[in-house]
Amino acid sequence: MKFVDEVHVRVEAGDGGDGCTSFRREKYVPRGGPNGGDGGDGGDVVLRVDPGLSTLLDLSYPQTLRAGRGEHGRGKDQHGARGNDLVLRVPPGTTVWDEESGGLLADLRAPGAHAAVAHGGRGGRGNVHFATPTNRAPRRADPGTEGERRTLRLELRVLADAGLLGFPNVGKSTLIRAVSAARPRVADYPFTTLVPHLGVVRVDEDRAFVLADVPGLLPGAHAGHGIGTRFLRHLSRTAVLVHLLDVSGLTGRDPLEDFDALNRELALASPALAAKRQLVVAGKLDLAETRDHLPALRERFTARGIALHAVSGATGEGTRELVRQIAAAVAEARTADLAGAQAQPVA
């Protein structure tokens, strides 16, 4: 299935039905009076989270999506039926923005969560509402109002507890394959991962967390270089970042410079993203070159007060300890977020 994480779609809620001008006309009922019914309200456009979806593909085709309009009122005090709502299914983690104002309309995360993004018009009143002692035969009825019309921008941000961060080909896909059932492509060339992959990592019988493998980043990613900003937003949901480095020296790059370069990209893209807790990991421990360069690099990170973990996704060495470290960091970050949310004053 094609992975689509951003779409633009035009939605139109249903118009309200018109009120009716009508009078009761029956034999032996003189001056029966007004009996025009109200028009029905228009249907809403509603987005609802479907946990079975993982992409916005179904909404990616150019189209205008319309809810049902309300029926017009009729005589004999018959009110028009309400228009049918249009319910659109979206995956968990979908944010909805108004294209014109730029405002956030909804942030849909939990299964079953829903939001009305365009409200239907109100049905018009029939002439029965306008009867007065001095005007017993009103010939006035209200027309229905138009439903809301909007162009929406939908963004999918994957829901994960921890996210793998690093340059292309540092071993992120190999690591997530080693600790979870996720099976992203692994190959010896850059950008083998083109879409985010989620894996459930089991710590023990009672604990687990979701790990996200996103495509590799390059300097200038915040401005669209490489795969660019498209996948930076997928890290915004995570509580912890796992920064994976290639210490083997085979790339010709300095791992510490790589670390600083990507952290600059995070800061330029989002200060909140740059402020997330990071675990720094040296990958490819199965290579002799990595073991040779690891002691000197560990000293450089220690001088900055940063602990450097070392693992091999190929052999599994060090992965169990890393999994426990990530789980503890995620639990601490989620607890801190909850405490911060509870401390916010109520408006």
Sequence-ordered SSE layout with sheet pairings:
Blueprint: E1 6-12, E2 45-49, E3 64-66, E4 86-90, E5 94-98, E6 104-108, E7 114-118, E8 149-156, E9 162-165, H1 172-179, E10 197-202, E11 208-213, E12 240-246, H2 255-269, H3 271-274, E13 277-283, H4 288-303, E14 308-310, H5 319-343
Parallel strand pairs: 1-3, 2-4, 9-11, 9-12, 12-13, 13-14
Antiparallel strand pairs: 1-8, 2-7, 5-6, 5-8, 10-11
Alpha-beta classification? alpha/beta
Return Rg in Å: 29 Å
Number of beta strands: 14
Counting copies of identical and different chains, the oligomeric state is: single chain
Low-confidence stretches: 187-193, 221-226
Q: Kindly report the average pLDDT value.
A: 85
Ends distance: 44 Å
Q: What is the percentage of strand-forming residues?
A: 15-25%
- Globally, the shape reads rod-shaped
Number of continuous helical runs: 5
Q: Largest sheet, described in full?
A: 6 strands, mixed
Q: What share of residues is helical?
A: 10-25%
